[in-house]
Amino acid sequence: MSTQTDQFLEEGPAAHQSPNELLAALQLPTQGRLYTLSVPRFTGMPVFGAHPPFDVSMYRTPAGLRGDGVKPWGEVNEVNLGYMAEVMSGTSHSGAHVDALAHMTIGDDDHWYGGAAAGTCLGDRGPTVGDGSKIPPFIRRGVLLDVPGYRGINALPANEPVNAEELQAVARHQGVTITAGDVVMIRTGYMSEWPHPERMARHVTAGPDISAARWLLEQGVVAAGSDTETFEVQPAPDPGSPANPQPVHTLLLIENAIYLFESIYLEDLARDRVYEFLFVALPIKVKGATGSMLDPVAII
Predict the structure, then answer these.
(1) What is the distance of C-alpha 92 from the center of its chain?
(2) pTM of the predicted model as reported, rounded to 2 decimal places
């Protein structure tokens, strides 16, 4: 039987929500309005450049069943009953998703949060510690920080950093505070151009820098997300020494088990100036996965 310490190392602080905290989150909605925070996935959809493409293909069709002589219900089928079933190919990091704690590694031993390392905790079917099956459900207070809205523009330019001082200014401007246990979403406007790659390229990889990550950590958030595929600004304006191309992922995900959401659709919330909401995201528990595709919602 695993100990409480072992469980924490596999799940992080987001999994440890008290009944009172859960009930407080559920009391946030007062209007009964729901916002979807994802867009449809489709074959050839934009994904982070190093990821495999997303693809949907049919595995079974009515005509295929007949052609193959497959009779799922036996010989008696006078009504010509058929069915369709597909095969989906792609990474769990396609579209709206959350990173598992085992998603990012660092160091000569390729370790991730809690000291798990590739040499001992990575098999041919994926990581065995901190994998996608350990990601907790998220039923939390959500806060949107609309950076381009604060600046009075539609979307941030490509590779634009957002620092801690600006995030604090956005929060003051919107009249919201960040509290322990929150999930904070940072809008860059990147998804306003979805799904047009050439137009999205004008706004690619803007996002929070390391100072913003430190501020989020200080506020006690259990997760943070953005509308980009990388969450943090790229290239990193302050990679440190030795140079780290993703210091924000390192600080939040690898060192502190703060879950990261990416490719979250925030346009409707920003349009209606909804800055506080009940955030609900239920990951799919897949052993060996390094994240989970999601269809999260905001409820007000």
Answers:
(1) 10
(2) 0.95
C-alpha–C-alpha distance, residues 186 and 188, integer Å: 7
State the residue for tokens 């098999």. 123
Low pLDDT (below 70) residues in the chain: 1-5
- Judged on CB neighbours under 10 Å (0-12, 13-18, 19+), 290 is buried
Sign of CA dihedral 46, 36, 179, 136: negative
CA distance 72 to 110: 47
Write out the two tokens for 35: 């916002």
The SS3 assignment for 149 reads helix
Strands 138-146 and 85-89: unpaired
Give pLDDT, residue 9. 77
Question: Quick check: helix, strand or coil at residue 122?
Answer: strand
What percent of the chain stands above pLDDT 90?
A: 96
Rounded Cα distance between 257 and 254, Å, is: 6
For 19-77, the pLDDT digits (tens) are 999 999 999 999 999 999 999 999 999 999 899 999 999 999 999 999 999 999 999 99
At residue 29, the 3 state secondary structure works out as coil
Strand 297-299 vs strand 138-146: parallel, antiparallel, or unpaired?
unpaired
Backbone angles phi, psi at 14, to 5 degrees: -65, -25
Cis bond upstream, residue 242 (ω within 30): yes
**Distance (Å, rounded) from C-alpha 115 to C-alpha 129?**
10
Which position has the token pair 């660092």?
106
Q: Two tokens at 81?
A: 């009953």
Query: d(Cα 261, Cα 292) in Å, to the nearest integer?
Result: 10
Nearest C-alpha neighbor of 136 from the set 284, 5, 3: 284
The full DSSP string for 202-239 is GGTT-EE-HHHHHHHHHHT-SEEEESSSSSS-SS-S--
d(CA 207, CA 187): 8
